[in-house]
Design a protein that fits this description.
It is a single chain. The protein is of the alpha+beta class. It has one domain: Gcn5-related N-acetyltransferase (GNAT) (Aminopeptidase), CATH 3.40.630.30. The protein has a seven-stranded mixed sheet, with helices on both faces. The longest helix is centred in the middle third of the chain and has 15 residues. 32% of the residues are buried.
Length: 159
């Protein structure tokens, strides 16, 4: 069911397409960028190869996302959930919760005590808001991302 990801994964292109189908929420990734995300991640996994995936980084990652850098400026040790998505036909099956559960277990085993993420406020993402609230994430800040038209809210959860 849960598969660790790499650029050599058989479902690489299907997952990149899933990412790009949700670029408004996640950000577009060409082949090189998606490969780099997987290579530098602390945790990357999918469910049934291409129905859902999650990519997360720890505080030491070589990553240029302004959202990731916002957290790194404020917290010493954390796992940053960069992107998580479930294919429309696979929703309401608990895949997001399963991916987060696996990440939290891996993070705790590595000594992490904090998980962090951002959720779009503009454009709104009410499904993600509800999902993160159910998991116990609380808002720690917000920002307008220059040149994107996006406003995000930053969330944290103690593990």
């Amino acid at each position: 069911m849960l598969t660790r990801l790499s650029a050599a994964a058989p479902a690489f292109e299907a997952l990149r397409k899933l990412n790009n189908d949700h670029a408004q929420e996640l950000s577009y990734a060409d082949e090189d960028r998606f490969s780099l995300l997987l290579e530098r991640s602390f945790f990357a996994a999918s469910i049934y190869e291409d129905e859902a995936f999650l990519i997360a980084f720890d505080q030491d990652a070589d990553y240029d996302s302004p959202n990731f850098l916002w957290f790194r400026d404020r917290f010493l040790k954390f796992v940053y959930i960069d992107r998580v998505v479930t294919a429309p036909a696979a929703r309401e099956r608990g895949y997001g919760a399963a991916l987060y559960g696996a990440l939290f277990q891996t993070a705790r085993a590595a000594g992490h005590t904090l998980a962090v993420c951002e959720v779009n406020e503009r454009p709104p993402n009410p499904a993600s808001d509800a999902f993160h609230a159910r998991l116990g994430f609380v808002q720690a800040g917000s920002a307008s991302l220059q040149g994107t038209g996006k406003t995000v809210r930053y969330f944290v959860k103690e593990l």
